[in-house]
């Protein structure tokens, strides 16, 4: 089943769930509505809104905060889109994020055991233990491998016979790239181990499909070929393989071998009590990094290629090209000191973000601008700034090049606070390398065909891209 079919079924299932919820609420004869601004038909109304690609464009028409409903979530969600409110709730210590719906939905990525589902002290412990592994310095070590990966991906794209005239879809190429980049980051210090991780791609895809099926009612498992069951089998294979690799690596490190990748940092990491991550923790960490870094980076890169071939002005592209040409050899340091490339990526993330809001759960009651938010309720902090600011849909590099009229801090593409994206350094580096390699060695232009918006929780805009070597 492809993702739009899964979405359609999810929407219908959620609508049925919503109606059931509505019926339960009615039958409980509660005179005092807990969530006053929910539509009369819970879920259904908002599903139709949300499934429409222009949802984020109309977000301004909603009050903030407002009780809302989203597909895949059975309860009401407090939607917040004012920048100060969004920053406040995202950084709140009382809030701990539920990544995609209920933590039990993330069982494929470790659920309560992993950084996705863990809350409070356990979440903090897992973050402390993984901090060094995801540092900027850790990324630097893997730069040459990431650069080769970007170049090979673009060459592969250009090799497709359709790339010359009609144009191709970038997404499958960037999905492979995003997965391989995480493998490089994890085990790039040992070629054989890296190849073993790369070989887990098909298993990860099974997990990814199975995860989407987690939102569906159990009886649909019979009709969709057992997506959930296949995903759990794939999860077991990945955990076993990562555990074997981790074991092997531990032994090699004990023998005095030194590695510079995330796997060795995760093995070495100790918290304040001296405790370390188990092989299972590390297995789930790999799954979480793939779960969080696969769709996000690949969809965002695909959207960026849409911008490059459809929206960005020649002046902006020339400025970017000049900066990239001035680098000489590409390196991590010239990419991190590249004001125009930096502005380019941030402007893309600002206009259309793969994850326009983050969803958290309140771990205690709080009040936001007079609205009572009971403990255990969900809230979504909307942070994309494309349509929320005047003239915000235009692609303008100057916003991130010192334009005083633009408040850069309004926008949080990777979230903020204790749940801030763990992989943002890797994501930024990956995206920058691909754009730099594109401008150094290839020409990308608009292909034949209409743009499509995909909006299934995460989002992208895509149109066919022609790509050829310079
Ligand atoms: C363009 C790419 C990406 C975007 C836009 C993005 C965005 C986000 C956002 C908005 C959050 C939630 C933050 C919050 O709740 O405040 C998040 C969490 C997370 N991201 Fe990313 N991300 C991207 C790529 C990656 C990559 C490549 C990785 C790993 C390799 C990654 C790993 C994570 C993890 C582990 C979390 C959960 C952190 C926690 O709960 O403590 N992300 N990301």
TrEMBL record:
Record family assignment: Belongs to the cytochrome P450 family.
Lineage: Eukaryota, Fungi, Fungi incertae sedis, Chytridiomycota, Chytridiomycota incertae sedis
Species of provenance: Rhizoclosmatium globosum
A single GO molecular function term of this UniProt record: monooxygenase activity
GO biological process assignments: sterol metabolic process
Cofactor: heme
Keyword annotations of the record: Heme, Iron, Membrane, Metal-binding, Monooxygenase, Oxidoreductase, Transmembrane, Transmembrane helix
SUPFAM superfamilies according to UniProt: Cytochrome P450
InterPro entries reported for this sequence: Cyt_P450, Cyt_P450_CS, Cyt_P450_E_grp-I, Cyt_P450_sf
Binding residues annotated for heme, in chain numbering: 421
Family matches, as Pfam families: p450
Residue stretches spanning the membrane: 6-24
UniProt-recorded name of the protein: Cytochrome P450
């Amino acid at each position: 089943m492809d993702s739009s079919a899964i979405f359609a079924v999810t929407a219908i299932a959620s609508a049925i769930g919503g109606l059931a919820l509505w019926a339960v609420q009615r039958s409980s004869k509660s005179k005092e509505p807990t969530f006053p601004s929910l539509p009369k038909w819970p879920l259904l109304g908002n599903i139709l809104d949300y499934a429409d690609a222009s949802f984020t464009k109309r977000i301004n028409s909603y009050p903030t905060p407002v009780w809302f409903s989203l597909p895949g979530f059975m309860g009401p969600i407090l939607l917040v889109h004012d920048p100060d409110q969004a920053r406040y709730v995202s950084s709140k210590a009382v809030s701990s994020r539920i990544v995609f719906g209920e933590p039990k939905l993330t069982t494929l990525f470790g659920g309560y055991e992993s950084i996705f589902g863990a809350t409070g002290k356990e979440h903090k412990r897992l973050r402390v233990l993984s901090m060094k592994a995801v540092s900027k310095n850790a990324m630097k070590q893997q730069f040459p491998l990431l650069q080769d990966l970007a170049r090979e991906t673009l060459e592969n794209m250009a090799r497709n016979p359709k790339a010359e005239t009609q144009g191709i879809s970038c997404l499958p190429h960037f999905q492979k790239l995003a997965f391989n980049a995480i493998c490089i980051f994890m085990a790039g210090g040992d070629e054989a181990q890296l190849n073993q991780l790369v070989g887990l791609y098909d298993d990860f895809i099974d997990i990814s499909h199975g995860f989407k099926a987690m939102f569906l009612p159990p009886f649909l498992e019979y009709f969709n070929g057992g997506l959930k069951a296949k995903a759990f089998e794939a999860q077991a294979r990945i955990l076993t393989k990562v555990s074997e690799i981790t074991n092997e690596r531990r032994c090699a490190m004990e023998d005095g071998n030194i590695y510079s990748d995330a796997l060795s940092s995760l093995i070495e990491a100790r918290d304040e009590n001296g405790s370390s991550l188990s092989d299972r923790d590390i297995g789930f960490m790999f799954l979480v990094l793939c779960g969080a870094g696969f769709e996000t980076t690949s969809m965002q890169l695909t959207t960026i290629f849409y911008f490059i071939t459809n929206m960005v002005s020649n002046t902006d592209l020339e400025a970017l090209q000049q900066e990239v040409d001035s680098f000489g050899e590409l390196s991590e340091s010239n990419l991190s000191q590249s004001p125009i490339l930096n502005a380019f990526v941030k402007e893309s993330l600002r206009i259309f973000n793969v994850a326009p809001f983050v969803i958290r759960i309140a771990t205690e009651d709080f009040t936001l601008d007079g609205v009572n938010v009971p403990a255990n309720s969900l809230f979504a902090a909307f942070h994309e700034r494309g349509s929320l600011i005047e003239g915000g849909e235009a692609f303008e590099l100057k916003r991130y090049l010192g334009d005083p009229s633009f408040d850069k801090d309004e926008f949080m593409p990777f979230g903020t606070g204790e749940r801030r994206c763990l992989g943002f350094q890797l994501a930024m580096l990956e995206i920058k390398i691909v754009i730099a390699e594109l401008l150094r060695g290839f020409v990308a232009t608009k292909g034949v065909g209409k743009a499509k918006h995909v909006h299934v929780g995460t989002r992208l805009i895509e149109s066919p891209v022609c790509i050829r070597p310079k």
